[in-house]
Automatic annotation (TrEMBL), chain A:
One of its GO terms (biological process) is peptide transport. It is found in: Cell inner membrane. It is a peripheral membrane protein. Belongs to the ABC transporter superfamily. This is Microcin ABC transporter ATP-binding protein. SMART domains: AAA. It comes from the Bacteria.
UniProtKB/TrEMBL annotation, chain B:
Its main location: membrane. Keywords: Cell membrane, Membrane, Transmembrane, Transmembrane helix, Transport. It comes from Mesorhizobium atlanticum. This is ABC transporter. SUPFAM superfamilies: MetI-like. It is found in: Cell membrane. GO terms for cellular component: plasma membrane. Belongs to the binding-protein-dependent transport system permease family. GO terms for biological process: transmembrane transport.
Amino acid sequence: MTASETILSVKDLRVRFQTLDGTVEAVKGINIKVNAGETVAVVGESGSGKSQTMMAAMSLLSSNGEATGQVDYRGQNLLTMTKGELNKVRGRKISMIFQEPMTSLDPLYTIGNQLMEPIRRHRGLSGAAAREEALKLLKLVHIPDPERRMKSYPHEMSGGQRQRVMIAMALANDPDILIADEPTTALDVTIQAQILMLLAELQRKLGMAIVFITHDLGIVRRFADRVYVMRQGEVVEEGAAEALFVNPQHAYTKMLLAAEPTGSKAAPPANAPVLLEGRNVEVVFKIGGGFLGGEPLMLRAVDKISVRLKRNQTIGIVGESGSGKSTLGRALLRLLPSDGVIRFGDRDISEADRQAMRPLRRELQLVFQDPFGSLSPRMTVGQVITEGLLVHEPSLTGKQRDQRAVEALREVGLDPNARNRYPHEFSGGQRQRIAIARAMILKPKVVVLDEPTSALDRSVQKQIVELLRKLQADHELSYLFISHDLAVVRAMADYIIVMKQGKIVEEGPTQEIFDNPREAYTQTLMNAAIDSTRFRVSA
Amino acid sequence: MLRYVFRRLLTAIPTLFVIVTVAFFLIRVAPGGPFNQERGLSPEIRANLEAQFGLNDPLWLQYVHYLGNLLRGSFGPSYNLPDFTVTELFAKGLPISVQLGTSALVLALVVGSILGTIAALNQNKIADYSVIALATAGSTIPTFVIAPVIQLVFGLSWKLLPIGGWGDGALINKVGPVLTLALPQIAIVARLMRGSMIESLRSHHIRTARALGLSDWSVVVKHALRGAVLPIVSFTGPAAAALLTGSIIVETIFSIPGVGRYFVDAALNRDYTLVMGTVVVIALFTIVFNLIVDLLYAVVDPRVRYD
C-alpha cells in the first residue's frame, strides 16, 4: 500500500463517563490516524478504551459519556458537528460493524428492509433501485440465495450470516472507512476465518480503510498494516505491524505478545489407571410437545460418545458452539440424565441418583466459563469456597474450614484475606481463581473445566493456564478441558477429542491432531484457528 | 395460524367449564339465598319462589340444570330483578360499559404511549420527571376521588360537563366517566412504555441504526418504538377485559346504567344467576382478548409465529 493521505485523525481525544462512583476517564488524550485504504489495528485488553475511542468518534457513546478533543474526518471535526451533518458522514463515509452479530440487527424487520434503509437514506434511491442495490450487496458478501434472504428475519440466520449482513449494510454506501469492533469475537473459529477473509476480499475490491478494534493478536498479525497498542486509556505503542511483532518496544506490548499460551503436556504413562470412563454416552433433549402441541422434536446433543480419562491426563474436547461438548462434560459428571455407561474408578455410576452421587461429587468437580455468573454475589469468597466442605466434611470445625480456605486461596495465588470480601470486588481472572479454589478445596480427582479461560483476556488466560498446570502437577489431577480455543487446548491437553453435532469427528494425541489432522473438519478447524505464529496473508 | 386460533378456542372450553363450576359452588357456599333478605316475605311465598326457581333441588341437580341452560345459551332469569332475564340485563348494559371501556382504553394507550416515549427520550430530564410524577399521581389517586373531583370542577364549577347520567349516550355525558376510567390506565401505560422504550433505545440494533446515519425519526419510531410496544400489547389483553366489563365505582358515581354494578350488587343479593352471568362474561372477555393480544404480538414480532 503506498503512503496516502490521512483521512481520519484523532487528536488528544478524551472520553469521560459520569458514574455513581464519580467520573471515570476511559480514554486519556490519545492520537490515532488512519490513511486512505490502509488497515489499522487498535489492540488492547478489556478496559483499555479501544472500543470507546471509536464509539466517541462515531458519537455513539452512552448518554453518560462525553468526548473532548478532535476527531477530524477530511478536515472536519466530527465531535463538533450537528446531528444532521454527522448523519451525512455516519453510514456513508465512515461505517461500523460490531461485536454482537446476534443483536446488532433489528429483530422486527426483514434483512431486505434493513439493508435498503441506509441506501435510500444516503443515496436517495427509489424503492426498486434500492432493492437492486441491496441484492447486489448480499451477493457481494456471499450470502447464498440472496433473493430469498431479502425476506428473511435476522432470527432465521446464523451468527456468521448476520455479521455478513452487517458488513453489507456498512458497505452499502461505499464508505472511506470501515470500523470493525471485535467483528469476529462472538463467532465460532471457522466462521471467524470466513468473516476475516471476506473483509480482506472486500477491502481489495472496494479500497476502503479498515480500523480493527481487537484483542486478538492473530488478526493483527495477519491483516494490519499499522498497530496502536492501548492500555488503560492510553496508546502505549504504535508502529508498522511487522516491526511491532519482531521488535516490540513497550513492556506491555512484549507482555501481550508473550501471553500467547505455549508449552504442551506429556501424556500420562500407558498403565495409568482410568478414572472416569463413558461408554456410548447419549444425551437427548426433548423440545416442544405437550398438551395439544403435537410431536416433540428430539435433539441428540451427545450421540454415543466414549471417553476414557486416565489419572493425571488432560483430555481437550474441542468443537464449535452447539457441538455438544459442554453437554458431554455435564453428562459424564451425571449432572444431566444420559444413556450409556459411565464409570468412576471401579464404580458404575450410570444409574446413580442424586443421593448416591453426593459423596462422589467432591471428587468430580466442575469449573464454569462465566466467572461472573457462577459465584453467588451475596456470599463472601470464604463462604463460597467452603460451602462444599459443609456437605462433604461436616465434621470440620469453623476454624478448620477457615484454615482450608486460607490454604486453597494461597494455592490459587490469591491473598487469603480475600475470603472476607465479596465476589464483585474481584476482576474476571481473580474470580476464576476463586472458582478454581472452590473446586480445589474438596481435593477432587477429576475436574471438568468448561471454557475456563474463554471470558478472560489473553494475559490473564495465560496465568490461569499456568495455575491449572501447577495444580495438576501437584495433585495428579485429571482434567476434561472443554474449549473452542485451540491455542489453549494445545497448551493444556495431551489428548484431543474433536466434536461436531454431538459426534466425535476425530480423536488422538494432541501432537498428532495438530500436525496431522485426518478429517476434513479438523483441518478446517485448525486452519481457521488464527495462529499468530503463522505469517500474515499478503493482501 | 388458523390452526392455532382453533386450538386456542378449543382449550377455552375446558377453561370456561372449570371457571363456571368453581363459581357455581363458591357462590352457594356463601350463607343465605336470593329470597331471604330483609324484605319480609312470608314463608309460603318464599317457599313458592324457591320451588319455582328449583332452589330446593339437590345442589348437583341445580348444577346440571344450569349447565344445560348455559349450553342452550340461556343464563336464566335474574332473581332480584324479576322482570328481566340475565341475558336482557347484559343486552342493555353491556354495550354501554363496552363503549366507555373501549374509549378509555384507546385514550390510555395513545396518551400513555406518547407520555412514556417522551419520558424515555428525555431520561432524567424535566420532561421525564414530570411524566413520572403524573404517573405516580395517576396510579395512587383512587377513582372514587378522581370522579367526584371531575364532577365538582367540570360539572359544578365550570358547568362544562353534566354531573352524571347516561343521557342516551350523548358524547358530553361520556367525557367524565371515560376520563376517570382512563387516568389510572394512562399512568400504567406511561410507566410501562417509559421502561421498555429506555431499554429499547439502549439495544444494539439502535446503535447500529445510529451508526448507519439514519434519521432520528427512523431510529426512534421505526426501530425503537416498534420493539418497545411489545409489553404494551401484552398489557392490553387483561386491561381490555377489565375495562370493557364496566366499573362499579365509575358507574355508580356518574349514574351510568352499565354492567359494572352487577358484579357487586348480584353477589351481595345472592342473585345466583346474575353472578354466574357476570362470571361467564368476564371470563369470555378475558379469553378472547388474550387471544387477540397473542395474535397481535405475532404481527409485531416476527420471532413469534404460530403454526
